[in-house]
Design goal:
Length: about 650
Amino acid sequence: MSWQRSVRRTVPGRVATGLLAIAAIGLLAPIAAATPDTDADAAITAAWQANGGDTGPLGPKDGGVYPAGDGFGQNFPGGKIFFTPATGAHIMTGAILDKYQSLGGPADSDLGFPTIDEGAGRAADSRNTTFSASDNPVIFWTPATGASVVRGAINAAWDKLGGSAGSLGVPADDEMYHGDVVSQKFTGGELSYDRKAKTFTTVPPELAGQLAGLQIPDDPTSAINAARRAAGGALGPLGAAQGPPYPIGADGLGQNYAGGKIFYSPATGANVVTGQVLAKYESVGGPQGDLGLPTSNEVDGGLATESRMSSFAAKDQPVIFWTPDYGAVIVRGAMNAAWQKLGGATGSLGAPMADQTQSGEVITQRFSGGVVSWDRSKKTFSTEPANLAPALAGLQVPEQDVPKAPPANPNASSTNGNKWFAWNWWWLLAIIPVLLVAGLVAVAAMRNRRRRSDDEFDIDDDEFGHRDGAAYDAVPAAARFAPEGVDDHAAELYDGRYARGGLGSAPSTSADRDYPQSSVSPWGAQEHGDEAVTTREPVAALETSTTQETDAPQEDDENPDKVDTAPTRLPILVERDPLTDTGRHARIEGDEPLRSRTSLHLPLDDPNLAPGGYPIKADTKSGLYWAPSSADYDDARAEIWFASEELARTNGFVRGN
């Protein structure tokens, strides 16, 4: 105890004791701090009391303060009061409140919160309330016209022309969208604004002169909200928003919704993409790919049957065109120029059937009504049927940027030829010792690796039935690297089939592909001089891998005397005709080679049993795939199994609901 008393007598001891006492008092004292709820309650109560309290037009409180979107609200028999710290507490009643709530109110509309109490407008018997959204919306009401929203460019032009007291009068209806043009009717005329051209037109037309030079701020959030409203708002195909906007590149934004996406940049504006057009866009890189951002909302393709189309910002003017028969197909550059020249999807070529292909300098694309080819070196078109080609003579073709060739080496000029020759010889002489040293290092590394391999395989009884380190070298290369479960005989077939392209890889050059020739064109025999047009026919219908059976007997490693006569299923690669491939279920070509196993697997004897390592179901008829997490995974019928969702999407399939 005397030690404890001596500690308390020291200065540090007294300080520590004091701090403990203060902490104890703080813990025992009641906490009195403001909260968002209490701030909202105080502000709303003050606004209510200023408007007469229980005896005012709102009447007594109907319940307590409740969260509303990013702020709070409180109900009264005669209306509501909404509050945020930024906007304050403001009263709304009657038809204006009804209009606000019909559009989603503070939680689900894009109007924001009221910034003033509902009050009289400049027109006779009118009422209005302004809101906090960045495009300055107002709800304006008269007994004759009801409540309408005026916002953005239309609101700016209306104010410029005198508002409700000017020549246009009061709004007679809400805004309407026609492509890139938004319009609104007033009792004294009509206002229209083209968001791409950034120009106004008016009824009567003489009012447009007063709007010359009116600047409309390009606000990304306002543009995205306007694009969503143009697509039908929350009740349209986009549905509810999913998370906040996210950056794309230096100045772009994206916004996800339950049914699609909106992409924005100052140069392209905000545009909606949905469904299989969106799936195709994202399969080739989306906004980070070479198509660029969309430059228009997804629109109807103009066909008698269902079709959709979106345009994109790349210099070769690409579009994605979707039909139920052929899926989503990219048309760009020379193909798009020729297609549009011949009337687009409603012209003689019809809808695109598959993405364009290139052979040397010739680009080709097949449509439902014919084929177009463009020779880049000759700058000429050819078509099937041939009578379409004359209409394309002299057509200007947009091209993508081609990287500039590096500047010529000044040492390679004709005037310095001898000097360049001597300079290179000196370098060759200097490199020879380096190459010799590199060769010695490589030989040593190979010997060391061989020694490690010998040690690794120097076991008493290895899988190949040998008892010394030479066993590995005695086994054919195919057997060493063939997929697991393939016997020696089958491995020789495997090695022979894939020796050129590497294990599991497809032939990489046109010389490696086997296309039988046919002299019959799908469009009928088209004669060019004395020769009939020939077309390639696919070797098989599938794009990537399937299986082949071999009758070679199989040995059991544990029981060499036992012979398994069951056929071995070996992966093989088959080819497709790039022109008849419709694009809906087609593989999207990539540069990555196949690895030690294939990307897909055909069903097992039990079609409901997933092959090992292939959990993703896919159906070639519907173009859909299902992951194990999908609600209808167990009921879905699998015609192909994929190793991953990414591989399913890469092959043109879309995730099923």
